[in-house]
Amino acid sequence: SLNCVEWSLLPPATEEMVAQAEQLKGRFQGDPSFEYEYTEINAGDAERLFEDGKEPMIKEESRLVATIEQIDRAVGIIPRGAFVKTPLGSVCENRNFEGLSLTEAKKLSSYFHFTEPVNLKNKTLLEKADLDPSTDFLDSLEHDIPQGSWTVQLEKGGTVVVLRSLLWLGLTFYHVPMTKQYGYVYFGTGEKNLDLPFML
Predict the structure, then answer these.
(1) What are phi and psi of 84, to 5 degrees?
(2) pLDDT tens, 139-177?
(3) Fewer CB within 10 Å, N side or C side of the chain?
């Protein structure tokens, strides 16, 4: 939105948009039509980006779309059991999900990345033996690298569990134990905290 009254949907992100946006540093300008110039690109990325002969330009609108996609992939999370995988392989919302218990809600292992699993495929058969294939089909937060990239806090006298990402500062996830209420919101600068490994 340019006036906070009329709103429109952003176009879907492509892999090319994400690759271009990853090369940009600094904060957003606030103008969707602003065009970024590539100033610091290594040789490998330059060859890939300049292969058609003309210098590529990325508009702020495209960078915004790509950044939202990056944030969703990296820190978009759900509580364990909120979604289930059917025997045919499709994933759907679990109508029987009544929330995590307070004890479970305090553990990082009770939350999953809501994206295609990466670490799960690398687990041994022995590690997979304890997992329930209908609920444990996504990557758990407890194995995120670097270790300690999430904080878990209790708010409102222990009635709300809040997780915050230290990798994407401004991402806050909440869950009310024993209820279906959960969600996440991002209020940040759109910059990844690349200094996190040195801060832990």
Answers:
(1) -125, 155
(2) 888 888 888 889 999 988 878 999 999 999 999 999 999
(3) N
Indicate whether 82 pLDDT > 80: yes
Q: Which letter does DSSP use for residue 89 in this model? A: S
Q: Could you check whether the bond before residue 11 is cis, i.e. omega within 30 degrees of 0?
A: no
Name, in order, each residue with C-beta under 8 angstroms of 184's C-beta and a sequence gap of 6 or more: 75, 76, 77, 171, 172, 173, 174
Q: For the chain, what's the residue count?
A: 200
Domain positions in the chain are 15-74, 77-198
Kindly report the number of other CB atoms within 10 A of residue 122's CB atom. 10
Contact between 104 and 80 (Cβ < 8 Å): yes
N-to-C CA span, the chain:
37
The total of other beta-carbon atoms located within 10 Å of residue 198's CB is 7
**This prediction's pTM:** 0.78
